[in-house]
């Protein structure tokens, strides 16, 4: 893989990660069309995704900060409740327990945890399938068609009003399954999770925020898994360096594309991306048989 190819993949990742058009599908198509050998398999795509993950951290830094703060406070309250339990038991007292899920950010943190469980399970289960699927053009094309259908359907649904306090844990689990399925090339992670959020009645702004925030533990987990399984050799050190460069490019481009995605949500124009996914899927199928 050359420097120019790494730059190209970084730009494509940065643009497509935050638009509902599947960054993994684009990467798979570009790598197949231009015969780009990354040498590190899924690890390259995982590292490049970490670049856009950095963009999420920066764009939603206030939310991430509040989630971490409320998470620490929740742990402290849990410890306090355990102490209260033993105190009441031994002293025959009736001290009150603290309410753990006492605000929207604590509820959001728990929802994100519930979503992460099925995502992690499916990501691990489908690991080998995804790697094989990314080696041809038919699999990403099928994934793009699925994404296109979802985006077309959701455009006709009215806007919901749900915020964290209104969302059930079963919905959070369903969203985690959707994100887990999105590891398949061509199925847009942002597209499928935002679409399902809207179909479940989420507030449009909250749907985007939830989709991006739930990507944080998923991407970090995938990166750690790949890094533990990866064997460093002299032959792939250069490819790893190019992957880090591509990730940096993806992060910079992705930061500006997040604002574009928020604008799309306000104008409710998913059908444009639906048509794009259908067209790109057709192009991928045609190229596969040429």
Automatic annotation (TrEMBL):
It comes from the Bacteria. It is a multi-pass membrane protein. GO terms for molecular function: undecaprenyl-diphosphatase activity. Catalyzes the dephosphorylation of undecaprenyl diphosphate (UPP). Confers resistance to bacitracin. HAMAP family: Undec_diphosphatase (MF_01006). Belongs to the UppP family. This is Undecaprenyl-diphosphatase. It comes from Blautia hansenii DSM 20583. The lineage of its organism: Bacteria, Bacillati, Bacillota, Clostridia, Lachnospirales. The gene is uppP.
């Amino acid at each position: 893989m050359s420097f120019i190819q790494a730059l190209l993949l970084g730009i494509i990742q940065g643009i497509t990660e935050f638009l509902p058009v599947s960054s993994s599908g684009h990467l798979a198509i570009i790598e197949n069309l231009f015969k780009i050998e990354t040498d590190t398999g899924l690890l390259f795509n995982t590292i490049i995704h970490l670049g856009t993950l950095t963009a999420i951290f920066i764009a939603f830094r206030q939310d991430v900060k509040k989630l971490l703060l409320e998470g620490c406070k929740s742990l402290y309250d849990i410890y306090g409740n355990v102490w209260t339990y033993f105190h009441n038991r031994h002293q025959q007292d009736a001290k009150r327990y603290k309410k753990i899920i006492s605000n929207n950010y604590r509820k959001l943190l728990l929802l994100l945890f519930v979503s992460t469980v099925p995502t992690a399970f499916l990501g691990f289960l489908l690991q080998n399938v995804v790697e094989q699927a990314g080696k041809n053009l038919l699999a990403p094309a099928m994934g793009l068609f699925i994404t296109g259908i979802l985006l077309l359907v959701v455009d006709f649904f009215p806007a919901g009003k749900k915020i964290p306090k209104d969302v059930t844990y079963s919905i959070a689990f369903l969203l985690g399954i959707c994100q887990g399925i999105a590891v398949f090339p061509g199925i847009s992670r942002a597209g499928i999770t935002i679409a399902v959020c809207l179909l479940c009645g989420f507030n449009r702004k909250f749907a985007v925020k939830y989709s991006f925030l739930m990507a944080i533990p998923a991407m970090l987990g995938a990166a750690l898994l790949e890094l533990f399984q990866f064997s460093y050799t002299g032959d792939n050190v250069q490819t790893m360096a190019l992957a880090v460069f591509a990730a940096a490019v993806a992060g910079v481009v992705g930061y500006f594309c997040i604002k574009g995605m928020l604008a799309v949500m306000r104008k409710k124009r998913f059908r444009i991306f639906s048509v794009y996914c259908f067209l790109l899927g057709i192009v991928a199928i045609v190229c596969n048989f040429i």
